[in-house]
Amino acid sequence: MKINFLMTGLLGLITVTAFAQKGELNTAQSEYNKYETLKTQKSMGTLAITSLKTARTSIDKAAANDKTSALPLTYALKGSIYASLAFNDTVATTSMPLFTTAEEALKKAKELDKAGENKKLIDGAEITMAQYQLNKGVKEYGEKKYDLAYKSFDYYRTILPEDTNAIYYTGIAAANAGNWDAAITNYQKLLTTNYSKKAAAYQDLSGFYLQKKDTTGSIKVMTEASEKFPNDAAISKRLLEMNLQTGKQSEVLGKIEKTIANDPKNKTLYYYAGITYTQVADQATKNMKGKDAAATAALTKSRDEALAKAEAMYKKALEIDPNYFEANLNLGYVLITPAIDLFNAARKLPVTKQKEYDAAMKQANTLFDAAKPYLQKAVDLQPKNLDALTNLRTYYLGKNDVANASAIKKQIDELTGVSK
């Protein structure tokens, strides 16, 4: 009878002990569930953290006991609890060990959970881990630690591979870190998603290729962008500039003129043609540096011919839409350019060349006055546009109208914060 009593007592002790350890696992789950519910309520923040800490105490006990330590649920819960602890800890030195513990626990949970019974718990924990890395990356990016930010954002992206913010953040951090291959890969992925700012993304991606000195790749990206966004002036202008820089002026103009023939009422096409001729003129001006008198004269002639063609194209655009800001702005620039050259050349003449000086200044004034209506119109349309204001100020300087030039300078300073 005594032996039987002892055996019964021993079995009872084992049962109670096992129940106690299973009870710790149940407590951990119950308290973690309570935390998940309370954390969504601002007024319950303190209670939520208390439940999370209680959950940690219980899961640590369950993980230390032979009866429950190897259970998939134990690892899944431990990963979830520690991920949340890391997320709520804003101090890197104390939060990172918590994050590492969560990462190790979740890895083990995936290995053991063959039936997928804890998938929802594991997935939720991984999203918390992603949020932790997102916050970490934002802080690192703000501190200009772009290499570290890239790694943090990439962790976030790995867990949420279709999240457009995750892809964008990873790509932009990679670019700032000079990791052009990673930047290109992420931006290429970004363009396959429903990202809302694809036009800007195309331009960024084009720039990444240029950083790798891959002009062909850059032009290819901008060509695709122009097909996707045919009415985006910035994209079209950049593609034109890139093609012109690679010596494709004739090809560009041929395409534009052919398109104009099929769509003669499209103001944008005339504007693009104007830009192209303007770029040709600007390139001729750049090529004058260091050239002898004969070469300079030939380049000047080419520049003036290109400017005249640009003028005609911009005027065509304005016939269709007189309030076309970009056409007014660029036409004013085209008309004022030769005026500035004459003005500067006249000022360099010696005092013995008074007659030549007077003739040059008279011609310059005529050209300045021809540009004025378009320069003024551009400012009227966009009073805070710095390019428009600068061009109009140049006109007043050329006309020796100090009062108006000073007034516009004040506007420019206010817009740029110089006067503050």
From TrEMBL:
<keyword id="KW-0732">Signal</keyword>
<dbReference type="InterPro" id="IPR011990">
    <property type="entry name" value="TPR-like_helical_dom_sf"/>
</dbReference>
<protein>
    <recommendedName>
        <fullName>Tetratricopeptide repeat protein</fullName>
    </recommendedName>
</protein>
<dbReference type="Pfam" id="PF13431">
    <property type="entry name" value="TPR_17"/>
</dbReference>
<feature type="signal peptide">
    <location>
        <begin position="1"/>
        <end position="20"/>
    </location>
</feature>
